[in-house]
Amino acid sequence: MPDDLQDFAARYSAAWSSQDPARVASFYAEGGRLVINDGEPSVGREAITEAARGFMVAFPDMVVALDSLHQGAAGVEYHWTLTGTNTGPGGTGRAVRISGFETWTRWDGGRIAESVGRFDADDYRRQLDGDAR
């Protein structure tokens, strides 16, 4: 685990906001694993780069802000808010603001070995579709 988790989390947020998906993957161990909303795990830096790229392409103006950081029973909880406009290829042109968190459960040499992330997918879809419900 990194010595200064707050600094690590701030730099991780900046990486997600950078439009450089390899920068996100650099925070993970070589065989690191990222799972988003119980989806198929992205395993290894190449797969994590592609997962990050998907969000960055969809939201060219994406900003991920660090909301809070907690040491929980399951691991370190990194809470974030993503804002951006879905103007990537095939995008809706709509702005989104979603909050979620990742639980970093394992570490390898100061890098994330496993991260399990969650956000409200229904709210995300409503915002993309323009449904004000």
UniProtKB/TrEMBL annotation:
Gene3D superfamilies (alphabetical): 3.10.450.50
A single GO BP: polyketide metabolic process
Residue stretches in coiled coil: none
Superkingdom of the organism of origin: Bacteria
Name recorded for this polypeptide: SnoaL-like domain-containing protein
Organism: Rubrivirga marina
InterPro entries: Cyclase_SnoaL-like, NTF2-like_dom_sf
Taxonomic classification: Bacteria, Pseudomonadati, Rhodothermota, Rhodothermia, Rhodothermales
